[in-house]
Amino acid sequence: METVATAVEREPRTYLNVDHTLKSWLLTEDHKRIGILYLIVITIFFAIGGLFAALIRIELTTPAGDLVESSVYNRLFTGHGIIMVFFFLIPSIPASLGNFLIPLMIGAKDVAFPKLNLLSWYLYVIGGSMALTAIIYGGIDTGWTFYVPFSTGYASGMVMLTLVGIFINGFSSILTGLNFMVTIHRMRAPGMTWFRLPLFIWSLYSTSLIQVLATPVVAVTLLLAALERGLHIGIFDPALGGDPVLFQHLFWFYSHPAVYIMILPAMGVTSEIISTFSKKEPFGYSFIALSSLAIAVFGFIVWGHHLFVSSQSVYAGMVFSILSYLVAIPSAIKVFNWVSTMYKGSVELTTPMLYGIGFIGLFTIGGLTGLFLASMGMDVHLTDTYFVIAHFHYIMVGGAIMGFMGGLHFWWPKITGKLYSETWARLSAIIIFLGFNLTFFPQFILGYMGMPRRYHVYAPEFQVFNVLSSAGASVLGLGYALPLVYFLWSIFFGKKAPANPWGATGLEWQIQSPPLPENFEITPVITEAPYHYAPSEEVVHVG
Amino acid sequence: MASHSVTLRHHFENAEQQKDASTIGMWMFLVTEIMFFGGLFMAYIAYRGAYPEAFAAGSEKLNIVYGTINTLVLICSSLTMAMAVHSAAVGKKKMIVLFLILTLILGGVFLGIKAVEYHDKYVGHEIPGVNFHPEIDGHPNVAVQNVSLYFALYFGMTGLHAMHMIVGVGMISFLIFKASRGAYTAEWHTPVELFGLYWHFVDIVWIFLFPLLYLIDLHQGR
Amino acid sequence: MEQKSIQFFPEQASTIAHSVDGLYLYLVLVTAFFSILIATLIVIFAVKYRRRADTPTPKAVHGGLWLEITWSVIPLGLSMVMFAWGASIFFTESRPPADSMEIYVTGKQWMWKIQHMEGQREINELHIPVNRDIKLTMTSEDVIHDFYVPAFRTKSDVLPGRYTTEWFHATKTGAYHIFCAEYCGTKHSGMIGTVYVMEPQQFDAWLSGGGGTGTLAQKGEALFSQLGCVTCHQATADVKGRCPNLHGIWGRPQQLTTGASVTVDAGYVSESILNPSAKIVAGYENIMPTFSGLVTAEGVTELVEYVKSIGPAPGAPGSAPAPAAKGAPAAKGAPAAKGAPAAKAAPAATVKP
Fold first, then answer.
1. A308 at the C interface (CB within 8 A)?
2. Which chains are adjacent to chain B, needing at least 3 Cβ pairs under 8 Å?
3. Looking at the partner chain, which of B37, B40, B149 has a beta carbon nearest the beta carbon of A241?
4. For residue A127, which of A68, A186, A86 has the smallest C-alpha distance?
5. Which domains does chain A possess?
6. pLDDT tens across C239-259, in order?
7. So what CATH class is C8-44+64-213?
8. Beta-strand pair C192-198/C253-255
9. B190 to chain A nearest CA, in Å?
10. Cα–Cα distance for residue pair A251/A167, rounded to 1 Å
11. pLDDT 10s digits, A358-396
12. What fold is seen in the domain C217-327?
């Protein structure tokens, strides 16, 4: 018979404490643990990619190339791009938060194929290790876009190893997407119809659709590039009748949808956060849900907007231009619906909410600047300049990473069972927002002035804005360093989190923090629409 | 060695959900394979459109007899595979093993003929990047360089296909092993069914490759 | 380049620059409007509807289809303006005027080599007259580059194995940056130069001083003889030899042995020099040897200009090329035009060698 004291001290069983061995982590089939494994590796890659960014920005404070040589600089921006795109952004939200939350949100015990899920993580680690090895051995200077003939005939370094690493990583992405789609199709709890799903699930489903359909194309493209480089088969070589622009078409056929892989999950997170911290059902739920699908589908038919000045035909260009405007409309719909959710809501500016509204603002700017680039005559001047760099960093950093940070802060209590310091977290969010804008807004101006991208040395008139940008980067770097500290601190010393610290709706908040290994003691049955907020007296407020 | 009923993995509610999930999973995987091969088909379309005569000249260097035999072999192997699935569905263990072995043999024949063809290409200096200088007769207007594009795609597409065949052959061996130990019953034979889907897919890819690579301008009787 | 304290725009130095800047202004205004609108609404709502201790749970607000349609259609309309305006500018940029002054550009790692028709060569510098239409015909010797002049607001990729074109009409004298705008390796950021836009008299003076080794076409004629082309491709018109007579073929369709037809332009001529078996004229054998490796990219340009100069217009070969290039499409595409209507090979005009 246990005493009261021991009954109180005994911790509830969670997916974290059920087994502490290394083997139980490295051979886990639990989607929650796999999500955490991904989170750890993703963070490592972010740090490495961020280090390269820091070196780039330091070099660019002066017009001359005085920090590193050109060949090293070219390896820095190549490494930054490859790591950030393939090994950080593409997996980020889906593989960490998606893995953790999808079964919880739909009322399932795990994903459809848990072993495949673990395999996906190993493929990610193996592919990433190959790319890192190539970087450690001096890096490659192809640019993350690997344009031919440069990458196949002129670039130096371990290009083949990098290509193989990205290829293998692609399978991680494909299998994760496949797993998520089957899970969402077949493992929903009774009563969880499609239009009762949380918007985060809609966004992850759309993301998975893209991962499954687009990634194989880049796989075969990189395979062809590797064969060209290794065996000179001539498939892209003009001397043999090949066409270097064919590579661009095949590459961007994946890489444009890829950017929607990066942003859709962040949009899903934003929907959850805005709703929770306005304590209101998302305005236009079906429109937000269907716009995710629309973005996924339309995203496949706009790739030619990367090829306006490549010698692509004028008429093809016009088709791609008009379609690129059409793909922007669903995103606009989301922004208006999010803002309308706050209207007559009950708004609480917690850390996740700060990231959520920051996302909306920065994504709006990023998305609108995309419209500049979709306009052909405008793109002629702006393509391959810093304007493009500013545009995609507004979406990927101001958008996707803010979404990721918001999601991390929102679900951290659920994942770890601990609370972090709200004060430090809010401060970091503000620092990140300010640092980000200072870093990337000047780059729009630099782009219009004509500063090309991937430039190691630049004309003196570009220095002023480069210095501002680099100053912003230091602030941004500080902003990203802080969460590392307070999140780790919270794991060891943070207050215990209740099941539902935010008063949110959703199945994941009905269960304990951290969850049981099997998620639910009994399978939930869903009987009402999503986002039904309880009367306020029942909610516990977070200090 | 007694047959056992369905093993329900812990995260599924019931056997039907489990089977459903794995079936959808396999279909989705095959869709990704279509996209994977699709990139090569796109390159083929682009280059054949630009250099039709070079493609015709390259196509002539392929052995139509081998190609036709291989096509028939694969179609038969799909038949034997379908019979294996049927045998599993009616619970006839010996027939499952028999048909799987037949499928394996046919798959092996295909790969063997492919190996012979590849060897011929090697001898005939028709491998791009490896001493490429084929003899092109009867096509005075064709640039040899452009023919290498045809062969690059030939090896790329049939090579990728052959790799999928090799994986398939490996899987069949595993299935034969399991089937011979009674793993598949009328109640549960999902791996056989799903592998059947894969095998049929690989067959269908070949059905596209054969005319596109072997039968270009055949009617012109050169 | 004038060094202002803080610039936001490059100089507006071409006719198209004004249009592009106008479109930019429109885009900036739309972006600013919506960004400020969204940001303001967020701030207002965050303040006005902030949660207080006694705030009850809000009721869901339902919008409805009309609101969604409205805020989809308005952005769509604004976007279509962006599309149409941009497409119109691009269309203009893709059609060099027929009587443009032509200049050849060859990009290679890591420099720009420029050849004027009159024979002048430059490296990393481009001298042009103000208020003239200038058309650049460009190719690369190695990887993909891009010839970008921010002050003109134009750029175009420069590809190996084919020609691309870029045209502009400079409106202001001065010196302007040339940047390579397609990453091309180690010294990509060093592959820069200057466009010097000069008054017409100064330009003529510059042109005639130095580099008097003859026009491109004249150099091409010399090469034509030096490389032995003249032994097969007869020097005089109206003679059918073992190879097609090149007099009067520029800009005209040529029937090939495959039955297809191709228009004789820079791409076709350069391909015929470097990869002769790719296309054989109907009625001839595949006996022309390739000159790949025997002639430089500039040499190919000179030969192209020579063939152009002995084109349809009856005139002494070797003179400044006649504007018979009207028939030749701007070679922004593949080396050979496909699908041109089949026609008999043009009869050669009588021209003195």
1. yes
2. A, C
3. B149
4. A86
5. 34-532 (1.20.210.10)
6. 566 788 888 888 888 888 878
7. mainly beta
8. unpaired
9. 15
10. 13
11. 999 999 999 999 999 999 999 999 999 999 999 999 999
12. Cytochrome Bc1 Complex; Chain D, domain 2 (1.10.760)
